[in-house]
Amino acid sequence: MPVKKLIPYALLIAALIIFPMVAPISVVNIGVYVLIFAIAAVGLSLLMGLAGQVSLGHAAFFSIGAYTQGILVTKHDWNMFMAIPVSMLMSMVVALLVGLPMLRLRGHFLALATLGLGIIVTIVARELDYTGGTSGIYGIPKPDFGGRVYNTPAEFFWLISPVVVLAVALGDKLKHSRIGRALGAVNDSEVAAECLGVDTFRLRVKVFVLAAAYAGLAGAFYAHWLAVVSPESANFPLSVSFLLMVVLGGLSTIWGALTGAILVETMDEGMRALIPHLIPGASGEVQLLGFGLVLVLVVVLLPGGLAQLWDILRRRVRGIREDPGVDDSETPEALGPELDALLAQADVGPPGSRVLEVRGLTKRYGGVTALLDFDLDVDAGEIVALIGPNGAGKTTAFNIITGVMPPTEGSVSVNGTTVTGKRPNTIAALGATRTFQNLQTFKSTSVRGNVMVARHLRTKAGLLAGMFGFDRGEERRTWQQVDSVLTATGLHRHADRPITALSFGQQRQVEVARALALAPSLLLLDEPMAGLSGSERDHLSQMLNKVRDAGLSVLLVEHDVAAVMALADRIYVLDDGVRIAHGKPRAIRANPAVIAAYLGTGEEDDNLVRSAAAQVEDLSSTSGGER
Ligand code: ATP
């Protein structure tokens, strides 16, 4: 780890050591709660900041950890440190069981489902005798470790300080690992992440379970510090506090959770002291109201939380610009050996072998038939174009082939495997990936960060390997390979720029580079030339020719007919969802049905169009090797 990255940890450790020595005992007591809640908040920060999942029931897992710990220690005489992993495991198991059905929900629905979970845990804990009913589990002893009882706030504070440092460090490591990148990508564009092979559902479940482990660990310490666990520990106000901690601190960094925990606990104590003076007879609900207000203000005024404020200040003080910019006047470099090396990684079949087979594809949206009985083949080592006027059904075909949507009828097979109705990540794993007509870049990261995600399928490090740093070699190799991809595609000058700082055309090029970085056997490009300058178009055309020469296949949707004619080996033409022509570029260019479709015809010409289309079909099935 670079020294620069170690500085915050050194400062944190120093603060944790000194704080109990200098602060009054009542403040150290608050500090203990800060540390306990910070552990849970780090877990929630991973869930919300990385996976973009809002949980209103984080306290449920906290409570499950606390109850398990309390029960094991008081009823079964377990040693505290033996019980902690079991308490975490219990929270994780419950998270897995509820996460599997719940994580199929999105946005507000997931938030509501997690809210319900908190209520269920509170009711179950209150109703069961085993959990002590309304009085809960009490008499939980203070930690007894190495012949010493950690009785005072200062002792307890020091006991859990290393756990907090570890919780932050592991969360931070995860964030910058293969899994962290994939989760961030899912948060930015789920469809793009899936088309690069990221199994979004699996990852969400994993991070949900991990967040529950953090909450369970915090709950276990909470049980020992408070000596009592009651059903209220799972209730809504605590979940709101956790939510406030991560939002106030800022979701972009794990450190935000720690900062948020300090602020929320300080605010909590402050409000507790202040509210009775301001509103005589006010109860806990008023405090919740205060938290709600702060939450609304933060979301409206400072959506990035304190981390955003810190980032703005740091940049101002150091004079760092968001985007250093580059000289765009240079034309992209020639395509070098880096591209050859990348393309050599693709798992391509022998020339002419079938890569994509589409049969009888039909898609209906209510009364609209976007695609009707569509057949298409792509073989190894060819560029096939799919053209047609606006609304012809090209993007619909792309979406079905790549698993973004299921067809109404018909089948798709990629490299010999039927993939109809399969998820995009499965199809990407079989070798087919794509770019998007409406840009789907990962906006929260740099150009390099975007391309790094594309190596997901070509790398292996899992969640734990990422957290514990067993992925160093793989990360170094990935970094080098992504550098090569950026060089090969002429984007290395932009590598460390935020993707949002690039022009529309450049972002399109990043999407192409990203798709290539997967080293797929089939590349589906949806209008890759749109927004590109003349030299950039030439560069892309050269690159696609190299891609074909290396035995890979390309399916291209493009409105630039001249580029299509120059590049494609075969062309399919769609109009109104129906395939009106298929053949070599020269035949397509002279096809009356195609000309009519592009120029528009009156109704009286429809028969002419149909008969011309039939002629072109005949022509294409008998035509030779000309382009
Ligand atoms: P363009 O070149 O403008 O991108 P396209 O050939 O890609 O057009 P599609 O986007 O596939 O065409 O659309 C085909 C038809 O299906 C159009 O009539 C469109 O309005 C319709 N369509 C597409 N998506 C939907 C949807 N989600 N619901 C209803 N109709 C849709």
Summed up:
With 627 residues, this protein is of the alpha/beta class. The protein is built from 25 helices and 14 strands. A hairpin with a 2-residue loop joins strand 8 and strand 9.
| Shape call | elongated
Which strand order spans the largest sheet, edge to edge or round the barrel?
Answer: 10-11-12-7-13-14
By DSSP, the count of extended strands is 14
Helices, by number, come to: 25
Mean pLDDT: 87
Low-confidence stretches: 601-627
- Biggest β-sheet: count, sense, barrel? 6 strands, mixed
Rg result? 29 Å
User: Which ligands accompany this protein?
Assistant: adenosine-5'-triphosphate
Roughly what fraction of the amino acids lie in strands? 5-15%
Helix content: 55-70%
Q: Termini distance?
A: 55 Å
SS-based class = alpha/beta
Write the layout of secondary structure elements.
Blueprint: H1 3-22, H2 25-50, H3 58-75, H4 80-102, H5 107-127, E1 137-138, E2 144-145, E3 148-149, H6 153-175, H7 178-188, H8 190-195, H9 200-226, E4 228-229, H10 236-249, H11 254-278, H12 284-301, H13 305-318, H14 337-343, E5 354-365, E6 368-379, E7 383-387, H15 394-401, E8 409-414, E9 417-418, H16 424-429, E10 432-434, H17 447-453, H18 463-468, H19 472-488, H20 504-517, E11 522-526, H21 534-549, E12 553-557, H22 561-567, E13 570-575, E14 578-583, H23 585-589, H24 592-599, H25 606-622
Parallel strand pairs: 7-12, 7-13, 10-11, 11-12
Antiparallel strand pairs: 1-4, 2-3, 5-6, 5-8, 8-9, 13-14
Helix pairs in contact: 1-6, 2-6, 2-9, 2-10, 2-11, 3-4, 3-5, 3-9, 4-9, 7-17, 10-11, 10-12, 11-12, 14-19, 17-20, 19-20, 24-25
The protein binds adenosine-5'-triphosphate.
